[in-house]
Amino acid sequence: MTLVLASVSSSRRAILEGAGVAFEVDPAGVYEAAIKRRFTGEASALAQALADAKALAVSGRREGLVLGADQVLEFDGEAYDKAPDADTAIARLRAWRGQTHYLRGGLTAARGGEILWRYRSSCALRVRPVSDAFLERYRGEAGAFLTTTVGGYAFEGLGAQLFDRVEGDFFAILGLPLLPLLEFLRQQGVLDT
Amino acid sequence: MTLVLASVSSSRRAILEGAGVAFEVDPAGVYEAAIKRRFTGEASALAQALADAKALAVSGRREGLVLGADQVLEFDGEAYDKAPDADTAIARLRAWRGQTHYLRGGLTAARGGEILWRYRSSCALRVRPVSDAFLERYRGEAGAFLTTTVGGYAFEGLGAQLFDRVEGDFFAILGLPLLPLLEFLRQQGVLDT
Predict the structure, then answer these.
(1) Fewer beta carbons under 10 A from the terminal one: N or C of chain B?
(2) Predicted complex ipTM exceeds 0.85
(3) Domains of chain B
(4) Total-model pTM
Protein backbone atom coordinates (compact mmCIF):
# COMPACT_ATOMS: atom_id res chain seq x y z
CA MET A 1 0.00 0.00 0.00
CA THR A 2 1.25 3.47 -0.86
CA LEU A 3 2.18 5.66 2.06
CA VAL A 4 1.43 9.34 1.56
CA LEU A 5 2.82 12.19 3.63
CA ALA A 6 0.32 15.06 3.64
CA SER A 7 2.92 17.62 4.67
CA VAL A 8 5.33 20.08 3.11
CA SER A 9 7.75 19.77 6.06
CA SER A 10 11.27 19.01 4.91
CA SER A 11 12.26 17.62 8.32
CA ARG A 12 9.37 15.12 8.29
CA ARG A 13 10.44 13.98 4.84
CA ALA A 14 14.06 13.69 5.98
CA ILE A 15 13.09 11.53 8.98
CA LEU A 16 11.06 9.09 6.87
CA GLU A 17 13.70 8.95 4.14
CA GLY A 18 16.45 8.43 6.71
CA ALA A 19 14.58 5.47 8.20
CA GLY A 20 14.28 3.84 4.78
CA VAL A 21 10.51 4.25 4.46
CA ALA A 22 9.11 4.65 0.92
CA PHE A 23 6.43 7.33 0.58
CA GLU A 24 4.94 9.98 -1.66
CA VAL A 25 4.37 13.59 -0.70
CA ASP A 26 0.97 15.16 -1.30
CA PRO A 27 0.49 18.34 0.71
CA ALA A 28 -2.97 18.79 2.12
CA GLY A 29 -3.42 22.47 1.32
CA VAL A 30 -5.72 22.71 4.33
CA TYR A 31 -6.64 26.26 5.27
CA GLU A 32 -5.09 26.02 8.72
CA ALA A 33 -5.87 29.57 9.77
CA ALA A 34 -9.59 28.81 9.79
CA ILE A 35 -9.11 25.80 12.07
CA LYS A 36 -6.85 27.78 14.38
CA ARG A 37 -9.21 30.74 14.63
CA ARG A 38 -12.20 28.75 15.73
CA PHE A 39 -10.21 26.53 18.07
CA THR A 40 -10.50 27.23 21.78
CA GLY A 41 -8.95 24.07 23.28
CA GLU A 42 -5.45 23.16 24.33
CA ALA A 43 -2.37 23.22 22.14
CA SER A 44 -2.20 19.44 22.05
CA ALA A 45 -5.78 19.12 20.84
CA LEU A 46 -5.18 21.82 18.23
CA ALA A 47 -2.13 19.94 16.90
CA GLN A 48 -4.22 16.78 16.66
CA ALA A 49 -7.09 18.60 14.95
CA LEU A 50 -4.70 20.03 12.35
CA ALA A 51 -3.13 16.61 11.77
CA ASP A 52 -6.63 15.10 11.38
CA ALA A 53 -7.64 17.79 8.90
CA LYS A 54 -4.57 17.17 6.73
CA ALA A 55 -4.90 13.38 6.77
CA LEU A 56 -8.64 13.51 6.03
CA ALA A 57 -8.36 16.07 3.24
CA VAL A 58 -5.79 14.05 1.30
CA SER A 59 -7.19 10.58 2.03
CA GLY A 60 -10.62 11.71 0.85
CA ARG A 61 -9.34 12.32 -2.65
CA ARG A 62 -6.80 9.56 -3.27
CA GLU A 63 -5.74 5.98 -2.54
CA GLY A 64 -3.16 5.04 0.07
CA LEU A 65 -2.45 5.37 3.74
CA VAL A 66 -2.18 9.08 4.43
CA LEU A 67 -0.21 10.67 7.27
CA GLY A 68 -1.08 14.11 8.58
CA ALA A 69 1.10 15.78 11.22
CA ASP A 70 1.22 19.07 13.01
CA GLN A 71 2.97 20.72 15.91
CA VAL A 72 1.84 23.55 18.15
CA LEU A 73 4.06 25.29 20.66
CA GLU A 74 2.73 25.93 24.15
CA PHE A 75 4.16 28.44 26.56
CA ASP A 76 2.53 29.58 29.77
CA GLY A 77 -0.78 28.04 28.72
CA GLU A 78 -0.88 29.83 25.34
CA ALA A 79 -0.64 28.15 21.93
CA TYR A 80 1.86 29.55 19.43
CA ASP A 81 2.02 29.08 15.71
CA LYS A 82 5.00 29.96 13.48
CA ALA A 83 6.11 33.55 13.97
CA PRO A 84 5.01 35.93 11.19
CA ASP A 85 8.46 37.54 10.97
CA ALA A 86 12.00 37.34 12.35
CA ASP A 87 11.45 40.14 14.89
CA THR A 88 8.57 38.24 16.47
CA ALA A 89 10.54 34.98 16.52
CA ILE A 90 13.46 36.62 18.33
CA ALA A 91 11.17 38.47 20.76
CA ARG A 92 9.58 35.14 21.66
CA LEU A 93 12.90 33.42 22.25
CA ARG A 94 13.92 36.36 24.45
CA ALA A 95 10.71 35.97 26.47
CA TRP A 96 11.24 32.22 26.81
CA ARG A 97 14.75 32.52 28.27
CA GLY A 98 15.22 30.48 31.43
CA GLN A 99 11.80 28.92 30.97
CA THR A 100 10.29 25.76 29.53
CA HIS A 101 7.99 25.58 26.56
CA TYR A 102 6.33 22.53 25.07
CA LEU A 103 6.05 21.17 21.57
CA ARG A 104 2.71 19.41 21.29
CA GLY A 105 2.49 17.14 18.31
CA GLY A 106 -0.39 15.42 16.57
CA LEU A 107 0.01 12.58 14.07
CA THR A 108 -2.92 11.04 12.20
CA ALA A 109 -3.19 8.19 9.72
CA ALA A 110 -6.26 8.00 7.50
CA ARG A 111 -7.49 5.95 4.57
CA GLY A 112 -10.49 6.57 2.36
CA GLY A 113 -11.47 9.61 4.40
CA GLU A 114 -11.50 7.70 7.69
CA ILE A 115 -9.09 8.01 10.58
CA LEU A 116 -7.27 4.78 11.46
CA TRP A 117 -4.77 5.89 14.06
CA ARG A 118 -3.76 8.90 16.11
CA TYR A 119 -0.68 9.65 18.18
CA ARG A 120 0.05 12.65 20.36
CA SER A 121 3.54 13.62 21.46
CA SER A 122 4.85 16.18 23.90
CA CYS A 123 8.35 17.48 24.44
CA ALA A 124 9.62 20.00 27.00
CA LEU A 125 12.44 22.36 26.06
CA ARG A 126 14.04 24.92 28.32
CA VAL A 127 15.67 27.88 26.62
CA ARG A 128 18.89 28.64 28.48
CA PRO A 129 19.55 32.22 29.67
CA VAL A 130 20.98 33.24 26.29
CA SER A 131 22.58 36.68 26.03
CA ASP A 132 21.18 39.40 23.77
CA ALA A 133 24.43 39.18 21.79
CA PHE A 134 23.84 35.48 21.22
CA LEU A 135 20.30 36.15 20.02
CA GLU A 136 21.58 38.79 17.60
CA ARG A 137 24.03 36.33 16.09
CA TYR A 138 21.42 33.59 16.12
CA ARG A 139 19.04 35.84 14.20
CA GLY A 140 21.60 36.26 11.46
CA GLU A 141 22.42 32.58 11.19
CA ALA A 142 19.06 30.88 11.75
CA GLY A 143 17.63 32.34 8.53
CA ALA A 144 14.37 30.84 7.33
CA PHE A 145 14.00 28.61 10.39
CA LEU A 146 12.90 31.69 12.36
CA THR A 147 9.58 31.71 10.53
CA THR A 148 9.21 28.19 9.08
CA THR A 149 9.33 26.35 12.41
CA VAL A 150 6.91 26.74 15.27
CA GLY A 151 9.62 27.73 17.76
CA GLY A 152 11.92 29.67 15.44
CA TYR A 153 14.59 26.96 15.65
CA ALA A 154 15.75 23.72 14.10
CA PHE A 155 16.77 21.62 17.08
CA GLU A 156 18.83 19.32 14.83
CA GLY A 157 20.85 22.36 13.80
CA LEU A 158 21.98 25.65 15.31
CA GLY A 159 18.87 25.60 17.50
CA ALA A 160 20.59 23.12 19.82
CA GLN A 161 22.63 26.03 21.16
CA LEU A 162 19.45 27.62 22.55
CA PHE A 163 18.69 24.93 25.11
CA ASP A 164 20.04 23.64 28.38
CA ARG A 165 17.43 20.98 29.05
CA VAL A 166 15.32 18.94 26.71
CA GLU A 167 12.92 16.12 27.52
CA GLY A 168 11.14 14.00 24.98
CA ASP A 169 11.65 12.07 21.79
CA PHE A 170 14.12 13.68 19.40
CA PHE A 171 12.05 12.76 16.35
CA ALA A 172 8.93 14.23 17.96
CA ILE A 173 10.81 17.50 18.49
CA LEU A 174 11.55 17.46 14.76
CA GLY A 175 7.87 16.90 14.02
CA LEU A 176 7.40 13.15 13.50
CA PRO A 177 7.46 10.59 16.36
CA LEU A 178 9.27 7.94 14.38
CA LEU A 179 9.24 4.81 16.55
CA PRO A 180 5.47 4.77 17.24
CA LEU A 181 4.88 5.49 13.56
CA LEU A 182 7.12 2.61 12.43
CA GLU A 183 5.24 0.26 14.77
CA PHE A 184 1.92 1.37 13.25
CA LEU A 185 3.27 0.95 9.72
CA ARG A 186 4.38 -2.60 10.55
CA GLN A 187 0.91 -3.38 11.92
CA GLN A 188 -0.59 -2.10 8.67
CA GLY A 189 1.73 -4.23 6.54
CA VAL A 190 3.41 -1.15 5.05
CA LEU A 191 6.76 -2.22 6.53
CA ASP A 192 8.32 -5.66 7.06
CA THR A 193 8.19 -7.02 10.57
CA MET B 1 40.63 28.85 21.09
CA THR B 2 40.65 26.15 18.43
CA LEU B 3 38.42 23.18 19.09
CA VAL B 4 39.82 19.87 17.85
CA LEU B 5 37.85 16.67 17.38
CA ALA B 6 40.17 13.69 17.87
CA SER B 7 37.84 11.33 16.02
CA VAL B 8 37.26 9.96 12.54
CA SER B 9 33.53 9.48 13.20
CA SER B 10 31.40 11.08 10.52
CA SER B 11 28.35 11.22 12.79
CA ARG B 12 30.26 13.15 15.47
CA ARG B 13 31.40 15.62 12.83
CA ALA B 14 27.87 15.96 11.51
CA ILE B 15 26.48 16.70 14.98
CA LEU B 16 29.03 19.45 15.66
CA GLU B 17 28.65 20.94 12.20
CA GLY B 18 24.87 20.85 12.47
CA ALA B 19 24.99 22.76 15.75
CA GLY B 20 27.13 25.48 14.17
CA VAL B 21 30.29 24.73 16.12
CA ALA B 22 33.62 25.47 14.39
CA PHE B 23 36.27 22.76 14.81
CA GLU B 24 39.16 20.95 13.21
CA VAL B 25 39.49 17.20 12.90
CA ASP B 26 42.71 15.53 14.01
CA PRO B 27 42.26 11.77 14.51
CA ALA B 28 44.14 10.38 17.47
CA GLY B 29 45.45 7.23 15.84
CA VAL B 30 45.43 5.58 19.26
CA TYR B 31 46.04 1.85 19.18
CA GLU B 32 42.66 1.03 20.69
CA ALA B 33 43.11 -2.73 20.60
CA ALA B 34 45.87 -2.54 23.21
CA ILE B 35 43.69 -0.55 25.60
CA LYS B 36 40.79 -2.93 25.06
CA ARG B 37 42.86 -6.06 25.59
CA ARG B 38 44.21 -5.03 28.95
CA PHE B 39 40.92 -3.59 30.15
CA THR B 40 38.95 -5.64 32.64
CA GLY B 41 36.39 -3.10 33.91
CA GLU B 42 32.90 -2.15 32.82
CA ALA B 43 31.89 -1.00 29.36
CA SER B 44 31.29 2.55 30.59
CA ALA B 45 34.79 2.80 32.09
CA LEU B 46 36.29 1.36 28.91
CA ALA B 47 34.50 3.99 26.79
CA GLN B 48 35.85 6.70 29.08
CA ALA B 49 39.37 5.27 29.00
CA LEU B 50 39.32 5.24 25.19
CA ALA B 51 38.00 8.82 25.07
CA ASP B 52 40.74 9.86 27.51
CA ALA B 53 43.43 8.19 25.42
CA LYS B 54 42.31 9.96 22.25
CA ALA B 55 42.04 13.38 23.88
CA LEU B 56 45.40 13.03 25.63
CA ALA B 57 47.23 11.73 22.58
CA VAL B 58 46.18 14.65 20.40
CA SER B 59 46.36 17.39 23.06
CA GLY B 60 49.90 16.33 23.93
CA ARG B 61 51.15 17.23 20.48
CA ARG B 62 49.19 20.33 19.50
CA GLU B 63 47.44 23.51 20.68
CA GLY B 64 43.72 23.77 21.25
CA LEU B 65 40.93 22.20 23.22
CA VAL B 66 40.79 18.57 22.16
CA LEU B 67 37.73 16.32 22.32
CA GLY B 68 38.04 12.56 22.51
CA ALA B 69 34.96 10.35 22.38
CA ASP B 70 34.19 6.68 22.33
CA GLN B 71 31.26 4.33 22.65
CA VAL B 72 31.14 0.74 23.87
CA LEU B 73 28.10 -1.48 23.60
CA GLU B 74 27.07 -3.54 26.60
CA PHE B 75 24.80 -6.55 26.46
CA ASP B 76 24.24 -9.00 29.27
CA GLY B 77 27.26 -7.65 31.15
CA GLU B 78 29.65 -8.05 28.21
CA ALA B 79 31.34 -5.21 26.33
CA TYR B 80 31.15 -5.27 22.53
CA ASP B 81 33.25 -3.42 20.02
CA LYS B 82 32.45 -3.00 16.30
CA ALA B 83 31.78 -6.33 14.62
CA PRO B 84 34.66 -7.64 12.49
CA ASP B 85 32.33 -8.57 9.61
CA ALA B 86 28.70 -8.43 8.47
CA ASP B 87 27.94 -12.01 9.54
CA THR B 88 28.94 -11.24 13.12
CA ALA B 89 26.94 -8.00 13.14
CA ILE B 90 23.77 -9.77 11.98
CA ALA B 91 24.30 -12.67 14.41
CA ARG B 92 24.54 -10.16 17.25
CA LEU B 93 21.36 -8.35 16.23
CA ARG B 94 19.61 -11.73 16.06
CA ALA B 95 20.80 -12.56 19.58
CA TRP B 96 19.67 -9.16 20.87
CA ARG B 97 16.10 -9.52 19.60
CA GLY B 98 13.50 -8.73 22.25
CA GLN B 99 16.22 -7.59 24.64
CA THR B 100 17.86 -4.36 25.72
CA HIS B 101 21.45 -3.39 25.14
CA TYR B 102 23.23 -0.26 26.27
CA LEU B 103 25.43 2.24 24.52
CA ARG B 104 27.97 3.50 27.04
CA GLY B 105 29.66 6.69 25.92
CA GLY B 106 32.73 8.51 27.14
CA LEU B 107 33.60 12.09 26.21
CA THR B 108 36.81 13.78 27.29
CA ALA B 109 38.18 17.29 26.79
CA ALA B 110 41.93 17.87 27.22
CA ARG B 111 44.40 20.68 26.70
CA GLY B 112 48.18 20.52 26.79
CA GLY B 113 48.07 16.85 27.68
CA GLU B 114 45.80 17.37 30.71
CA ILE B 115 42.19 16.34 31.11
CA LEU B 116 39.81 19.25 31.77
CA TRP B 117 36.42 17.60 31.62
CA ARG B 118 34.75 14.23 31.30
CA TYR B 119 31.21 13.17 30.56
CA ARG B 120 29.70 9.70 30.52
CA SER B 121 26.43 8.89 28.76
CA SER B 122 24.27 5.80 28.72
CA CYS B 123 21.40 4.88 26.44
CA ALA B 124 19.17 1.80 26.51
CA LEU B 125 17.88 0.36 23.24
CA ARG B 126 15.57 -2.62 22.88
CA VAL B 127 15.78 -4.51 19.60
CA ARG B 128 12.23 -5.46 18.63
CA PRO B 129 11.47 -9.09 17.72
CA VAL B 130 12.58 -8.60 14.13
CA SER B 131 11.98 -11.45 11.68
CA ASP B 132 14.81 -13.29 9.96
CA ALA B 133 13.49 -11.92 6.66
CA PHE B 134 13.80 -8.39 8.00
CA LEU B 135 17.38 -9.03 9.11
CA GLU B 136 18.23 -10.40 5.65
CA ARG B 137 16.92 -7.25 4.01
CA TYR B 138 18.57 -5.09 6.66
CA ARG B 139 21.89 -6.78 5.96
CA GLY B 140 21.66 -5.81 2.31
CA GLU B 141 20.70 -2.21 2.98
CA ALA B 142 22.73 -1.30 6.07
CA GLY B 143 26.02 -1.64 4.19
CA ALA B 144 29.09 -0.27 5.93
CA PHE B 145 27.19 0.60 9.10
CA LEU B 146 27.24 -3.10 10.00
CA THR B 147 30.95 -2.89 10.78
CA THR B 148 31.66 0.83 11.30
CA THR B 149 29.26 1.30 14.21
CA VAL B 150 29.42 -0.44 17.55
CA GLY B 151 25.92 -1.91 17.25
CA GLY B 152 25.81 -2.52 13.52
CA TYR B 153 23.26 0.25 12.99
CA ALA B 154 22.89 3.95 12.40
CA PHE B 155 19.99 4.92 14.61
CA GLU B 156 19.46 8.14 12.62
CA GLY B 157 18.97 5.99 9.52
CA LEU B 158 17.57 2.58 8.67
CA GLY B 159 18.62 1.38 12.14
CA ALA B 160 15.53 3.04 13.60
CA GLN B 161 13.50 0.15 12.20
CA LEU B 162 15.33 -2.25 14.54
CA PHE B 163 13.98 -0.84 17.79
CA ASP B 164 10.74 -0.67 19.68
CA ARG B 165 11.99 1.18 22.74
CA VAL B 166 14.80 3.64 23.17
CA GLU B 167 15.77 5.61 26.25
CA GLY B 168 18.46 8.24 26.38
CA ASP B 169 19.76 11.27 24.57
CA PHE B 170 19.53 11.01 20.78
CA PHE B 171 22.89 12.71 20.30
CA ALA B 172 24.53 10.35 22.79
CA ILE B 173 23.18 7.38 20.79
CA LEU B 174 24.89 8.91 17.75
CA GLY B 175 28.14 9.21 19.73
CA LEU B 176 28.31 12.78 21.03
CA PRO B 177 26.16 14.06 23.93
CA LEU B 178 25.62 17.48 22.42
CA LEU B 179 23.88 19.56 25.10
CA PRO B 180 26.38 18.83 27.93
CA LEU B 181 29.20 19.46 25.47
CA LEU B 182 27.78 22.81 24.35
CA GLU B 183 27.48 23.87 28.00
CA PHE B 184 31.13 22.96 28.59
CA LEU B 185 32.21 24.83 25.46
CA ARG B 186 30.37 27.94 26.65
CA GLN B 187 32.09 27.70 30.06
CA GLN B 188 35.44 27.51 28.23
CA GLY B 189 34.67 30.55 26.13
CA VAL B 190 34.70 28.50 22.91
CA LEU B 191 31.04 29.40 22.27
CA ASP B 192 29.03 32.57 22.96
CA THR B 193 26.81 32.49 25.98
Answers:
(1) N
(2) yes
(3) 3-187 (3.90.950.10)
(4) 0.94
